[in-house]
Structures
1.
Amino acid sequence: MSEAPVAEAKPPRRQRVMSGIRVTGPLHIGNYWGALSNFVKLQNEGTYDCFFGAMDWHGMTTAYKSTVDVAPWTRDMIAEFIAWGLDPEKSTLFVQSRVPEHIELFMILANLTPMGWLERVTTWKDAEEEAKANDTHNLGRFGYPVLQTADILIYRGEKVPIGKDQTAHLEISREIIRRFNHIYKAKLPEPTPLFTDVPVLPGLDGRKMSKSYGNTMLLTPDEKTLKKNVNMMVTDPQRVRREDPGNPEVCSVYGYHKLYSTAEDLSWVEQGCRTAGIGCGDCKAKLFSNIDALTKEPREKKKELLNNPKLLDSIIDAGCEKARKEAQKTLGIIRSCMKWST
Ligand code: TRP
Ligand code: SF4
């Protein structure tokens, strides 16, 4: 059989990757291991067409009383994205609220999402009492998974890198999109997850790391904060005196060494701790210098962007414009499926 003429051989369309991070403050290392590091990896594989957003509407569902922080946090997030390796030339980096089509699609999808589906989502069900107590038992928060579905669908995202904790949300997204396809005889892609294995991260105080405990480690801390954080870390409580041998497995300093230090340094800690060969001060100093070295380049890159608001603005503007073009295209397809083109 003869081969197809070269002129017809179109390059295969690249699969779409879409994801984002909710804007709630400066990124911590949980955001990095759970999301950003994977975004960078997927971008650099070069086989995907990537869209990554700073999700400020999702931040608003809980931050609506202190909205003044949301814009600076959003800029900080985009600077952080770039500092840690997302490239605005390779990926489309956008701010959710700057692409109003998300909200238009949200409203369309809201009509075809049964309340029961949302009521069953564990992130809603299990947090209802807490939400009532802190005044976030609201429609925006209830509709969180619908907006998230609109985020994905507006770019016709096919692969969604998320942490395992987002499984239920993505399942709802698939159901809503399936329902859309069924009602309007459309063929929009049902997204599938690309799970990120998130290590259990130690909090600075030895408990599990959680924003609500206030024990998180920032992704790009300045030197002073880093010093403070390392000093805050709790060591093996049994190791009272310098000459007492310790157990690194119960020490949060060691937990952080596992994230930031080389195998060689790890065995130095292991050995030294168990034999009282090193003191906790030495151990913390080593950790400080390892984190400091690893975060130096991104820290400088981030600072450069934040100190040059014109440059950052132009990057954000260009990303949002690129995103908007695609979102408008999708909305056109969606309205024509619905026969609702006025
Ligand atoms: N819910 C995600 C988070 O907690 C953020 C998010 C919003 C998102 N929209 C999305 C993730 C769409 C993936 C796809 O950070
Ligand atoms: Fe923790 Fe290091 Fe002290 Fe051991 S030496 S208890 S690992 S800080």
Note: The first helix runs from residue 29 to 45.
2.
Amino acid sequence: MTDSQNEQGDDRTADVVILGAGPAGLVLGNILLANGIDCVVLERAERTHVQQRARAGFLAAHTVRILERHGLAAGLHRRGQTHDTCEFRTQDGRFQLTYSALGQGEPHTVYPQQDLVCDLLTHYQEAGGRISFATEAVAVLDAHSHRPVVTARKADGRSSRWQARYVAGCDGRHGAARRALPPATVRHRLDHQVSWLGLLAEAPPSLDAVGYAVHHRGFAGHMARTSTITRYYLQCDRGTPAQSWSEERIWDELDLRMGAKAYGPLQRGAILERSVVDLESDVIEPLRHGALFLAGDAAALISPSAAKGANLAVLEAEILAQALTDDLLHGVGEGLDAYSPRCLTHIWRAQEFSRWMIGLLHSPPGNDSQASFLNSLQRSRLSSLRTSRSQQDWFATHYVGL
Ligand code: RFL
């Protein structure tokens, strides 16, 4: 079905109305469609924007297995690359961990999120899935009834109402799903007090590993995306405008923090994208409000320090799809009742590990005695990771696990 047919159609009902066409919404839509469930995806952005938005790249083996189970992994098997090593560069030298060979570690598949989103969209639409781009969900009404309603507005100002049995809020942290939650909903929130300048460089990866540089000037990270594109991060002061660093300054600073003099220069290239990311986390509890369910970033925002966000989104989408299918096809609602506690267990484990990674990678600010104490703790943590096999096993298990 074409977009224009989708958008012009009079049909304004669906058993499941999905808000948002990111990894969570599209995995959910694909599985529901394959299970014969009537659904529609409403996406605020234009199609081209959704297909080009570069974000995640590291997919855990668990995520790949979910995508395989539902026939959604052909693209990542064709074009993704396997990755299983990270390298830490510190004032005490560097060391590598091949996490796939430690603990319950497994390799990652490196596959840009926008490529995954393109695959999921293509698969969904080829299977006849309904999707409406440039359609912003404005509100979710009557979430506690059996017929919740989503009101939506097109980019040209036209509005529409969608009646549903269930609404899946996969529309991120600023979406309509979160706005529809009752005041009693708990929002746990933590500002990690760290900011990163996130960069996409038109340059091949310079290491065969994820690079984490712990430097007194701040953290620097290197993550492969494709053979010609690499993601870099540079810790920066909170409030730094993304454009304030020249390309030369960015590369010089990356070279410095990553120890290019000792370990070899980085391959430079044009900076294609840059944005400042304030490292924050939050968790909504519970993830269900009547007929409204939250998944992905709408359910919990997780700092990118351990690359968990897209992986959690896919996991939650599969759990929700199964629960909705059981209810809608077989009248079995236990899965829906269990959805929130089940996902929250995974979310809190991922949050805990991401927080641990932030402590591992960032030197505390200041020169006072507290900073020097925390600095020594960080050094000790790095030293255990370098030398203790049980610590390495623990790291590997949590680095790729959910
Ligand atoms: P998305 O991908 O944000 O999709 C939500 C969609 O909802 C739409 N939307 C609405 N649509 C209709 N009505 C409304 N009112 C709407 N409001 C919003 C938006 O346009 C959008 O299309 O959420 P989803 O599906 O939950 O997926 C989550 C992931 O995108 C996110 O967690 C990851 O990108 C996080 N993340 C990473 N995760 C990993 O697992 N591995 C990584 O390597 C990794 N790297 C990253 C990351 C996030 C980053 N940013 C954004 C801070 C690197 C970066 C720089």
Note: The pocket of RFL is lined by residues 19-25, 42-45, 50, 55-58, 113, 136-137, 170-172, 175-176, 198, 277, 296-297, 304, 307-311, 313 (CB under 6 Å).
3.
Amino acid sequence: MWRSLRLASTLGLCASAFGQSSTVDSYISTESPIAKAGVLANIGSSGVESSGAYPGVVIASPSTTDPDYLYTWVRDSSLVFKMLIDQYTSGQDTTLRGHINDFIVAEANMQQVPNPSGTVSTGGLGEPKFNINETAFTGAWGRPQRDGPALRSTAMITYATWLIANKNETYVTDSLWPIIKLDLDYIMNNWNETTFDLWEEVDSSSFFTSAVQHRALRQGSALATAIGQSSVVSGYNTQANKILCFLQSFWNPSPGFMTANTGGGRSGRDANTVLTSIHVFDVEAGCDGVTFQPCSDVALSNLKVYVDSFREIYDINAGIRADQAVATGRYPEDVYQGGNPWYLASFAVAEQLYDALIVWSKEGLLTVTDVSFPFFQQFDASIKPGTYSSSTPTYSTLTTAIKNFADGFVATAAKYTPSGGGLAEQYTRSDGTPNSAFDLTWSYASALTAFNARAGETSASWGAAGLSVSPACSTSKASTVPVIFNVNVTTVVGQNIYLTGSVGALTDWSTTNAILMSSADYPTWSTAVTLPANTQIQYKYIIVNNGNITWESDPNNEFTTSMSGITTLNDVWR
Ligand code: NOJ
Ligand code: NOJ
């Protein structure tokens, strides 16, 4: 009886994995043209929903009330046009050149518009949004936002590089370079100043902003070299080196994630960081952690910590197994428009994982380190740090499970996409109804880039390969050791086991940020945590069910971590 039940549930799992993959296939085939049309509809002046926007101006959404998004944001527009420029330069869509030229003219005009952040030479390039007729928006806002010039120059440099390869260097030098240079000089001179983050709320330093600035300066210095503008090169490179060093300081080794902002007073878990990994992806850079590549150990650990922070807070995630995809949002503490999951966040998680799969397949191997161990352990409870070549069963097990996990995030977005295929900004945490701005241009663009990554497509590389921080950049990490916590506990559907304890890596006895354990080896729940070496630690397991918490009985469990090597703790719930 037990055996046949077990067999039935195993078959059920396989069937559901196949079912999911074909559900995702069919969602992609219907959603792709809708998303593409959704993007083009929001670009002036010909876009059917663009409501009088000037040519090349991207509206964030046609929504005019609650929220009013009938404006153009430099960030949204640049991310959208980076996607379109990639489609054009790769030959995926050869009809986009007119739109690209319009975008360049529109952005060049807005660069020159005096606005509340300043003029073109006094900080105005940090202005986050404009009216759709290219005039300044003068209302109160979180400004400046310094990711805009970086994302815009990256989009334009990508186009410029293609033009040079296609024998149009004169246009690049005469027309594009002066526009690009304004943004790059702004980054070079101001990257070290505070900025509002990409969510327009926290005024501090921000991982996403610094990372895209770093990328823009690297690409800018390569472009400058290619067109003989060598006078800027050393300035751009010097600042890029400093930004790359600064980026390392966002790493929080326990429990292994990039803190999104230096300010803000939040947990620091934020889609900011997952978006960073996909927007700095360079297929030539392997799994480099210094530039936060999608398959790097730091970015994978970060992905898990980010995703897990949403498991208990959204009703629609209730009852979903700890190793499966869930709905995710900007950050767990978010309250904007209800503080819901965002489509672009779901797509970003999927895209990071698809990018990772592309690189592992290209390199014919994947590596599990102490840092990425908790991520991989979700998919193979007995995994050990090491390198697995593509001919090993472990590689197949892991990559199959990770592809499936990635598809789960697309399937989540698909599940909450209404029948017409429209993508709003959010879907509610209570029942997944589309919410906030409808037809969000960025949502559509994020779907398209995730779909392309799933199909194995990559964008032009930007020079991330081989970068490293200088010896003078102190990024020394304190000594840590991996510890595997196993606890045997019988649970019922809806219950998850979390670990919490006396040090930062164990969330300082938090119940809301406690560490979710994997049930892959049920009734053993496990997780791997990187703890400070040679330190006395106290901990307990908790059962969480829909926000209700049951603690293990007293006293606290206690042990001292080793100086080195992996420790496994085998506990029984009490
Ligand atoms: C509008 C911004 O666009 C959004 O990101 C923010 O959450 C809200 N204002 C609240 O500050
Ligand atoms: C609010 C988001 O937080 C911000 O990132 C975006 O630029 C605007 N909405 C417009 O879509």
Note: The pocket of 1-deoxynojirimycin (ligand 2) is lined by residues 60, 69, 73, 75-76, 198-200, 442 (CB under 6 Å).
